Amino acid sequence: MPLIVVATMLAPALAADAPPDEASRQALFQGLNLSVSPTPPTDIPGGAGSAGLVDASAFAWQEFIALNWPALRRNGQVVRDQPDPQAVFGSPGSGPLVWETFRHKVEIFPGSNSPSDPPHGYNSGTQGDPHGYSAPPVYVYSPAIYPNGGQVGACPGQPAVAQAPWINLDETSEIGLTNMYAGVLNNVAPSVSNSAPPQFRYLAKANSAEYNYVVDQKLWYAGTNTPLQARIDAWEAGISAGIPADPGSVVTLPAGTIEVKSAWRMLAPGEDASRYHTNTVRYYEADAAGVPCYWQAEWALAALHIIQKTPSAPYFIFATFEQADNIVQPDGTPIENAAGAMVQQPVGATPTTPYLYYQDRANNPIVVPNFNVYCNNTGSRLFYHEIPAAGDFQGTPVGGNICVNKRYEPIPYEIQQINTIFQNQIRDYNTSNGLSTSPWLNYKLISVQAVPFNKSDIVTTFNSTRQRGSYYQANIVVETDYTLQQFSGRIADDNAPTDYPKGGNQPNFQNVYLPEGNSFKTYQMGGCMGCHGNAQLGGTDFSFLFGGNTLSAKPDLPDPDDAVEARAFYRARLSDLLSLPAQGTAAK
Fold first, then answer.
1. Block mean pLDDT (10 aa), the chain, length 588
2. Three-class SS of residue 196?
3. End-to-end Cα distance, the chain
4. What DSSP string describes 271-317?
5. Which of 62, 94, 205, 345 could form a disulfide with 70 if both were Cys (CB 3.0 to 4.6 A apart)?
6. 498-518: string of b/e by CB count within 10 Å (b at 16+)?
């Protein structure tokens, strides 16, 4: 595609206000009540709406520690969602972690997509677990593709396993937009067991609060004349009228619902595995007939998203963590330290090589590379490939490698300080429990979203949850391309981000609708919350897992063409939403 000269380039980052004086700063951080605890927080003290960034970040870290606690075993069986209070946080070989025992999306919304084929365990519950939530993992895709009840078979050469692993990596793209790669693995040759060694793979899970709600309300299958569609219709009718529907008639997940998304990759020869949490993962390749089959191997956790619905945050609180060594120079040396502060200037002065220009417009918004030159020498850097949009017009640069040099939004000072405080807490805990080290010293909070707000309300105020870094919350290996790193509004048909409603001529698309009495308060939110707000606008309460059964007909393969189904699914959730009601007229 020839270079298109556009009028609008990247908005300059706002300069953060100077932190308060040293005494005030120390008082703010020392006033926190912190611990290395297996008990997850249920809300931000004082409520999410009035929280400062420091308190919101502390909430995120307490959540991260509790969810990464070793899971409880009872009578030899793992009890999902439950931490083992006697276990040592970060101890090697301690079994699955609490969040790893959450149900995978296909364990809640099976690929069979049938009212007569509920999630496994549903019909074999016990008094304390009436819907069989804690049954060992089983991953059910489409029985039409996999005659073994929808279960994918092992690839030739993969030994049989007694139980499926807890980590089922059945996604290979970032919501059908981008494939992501680690340059440190460029020299690892493809093999029959891994056709794309540098590629990141992903999964999504949810806890028992979501699972029990889904099975109680019979929402595990989608389509016309289903209980799920009836709730979606009721929500959309309320949006159209500008009057919130009764919460009992729409998808309303309970407080305490947690969803996670994680990114994993193999480690290169010579990489220090002790700096990562590792576990046995299942991932998918094609057999000789082109049908997905599974392999299993020990891989490393690169990123973890956590979203939790709390009493004060019906829109969920969004937190995202990364392993410390994700962003590196071509020679493999880190750009940031473990707290998130930059320790050296990247090889490129801009967030990516090539530099990307962006123009939003009512039709065909576009992201284009400078001079149409791509990154031919990735070195050890992260890089990605954009997946072509379905139409003729391409709104994102699909012509080659795009290398990651640094973040679009630096990790705020407040979060860097909280990262250091918690990492020191973990060091002290390790000393008290006889551990020489822990992989969790090498993970850091990137951003937290505690409230929805409009782009026009971004501030530089110290300790505010309305800073630019919160608005554009993004994980560098889960939301890597420009569309997701700088997301607001929705995603256009051509894969570029846009603030325009479909068919509209003003950039006033609202993606978060909060019921307030007999009306809605709406926002044009960015980042993770804004993206998930499109799911809420579509009637599934900030969750993209509902109605995903057709997407779960089979697991993804590394081939970019395999992302077509994912892009079609997310296009319906992020691109095809209409103006309901007329955008810009709802209460704000």
1. 32 49 73 88 97 97 98 94 97 93 97 95 84 95 92 95 96 95 97 97 98 97 96 95 96 98 97 97 94 96 98 98 97 97 93 97 95 93 95 92 97 96 96 95 98 97 96 96 97 96 94 95 97 95 92 89 79 63 42
2. coil
3. 40
4. --GGGS-EEEEEEEEE-TTS-EEEEEEEEEEEEEEEEEEETTEEEEE
5. 94
6. bbbbbebeebbbbbbbbeeee
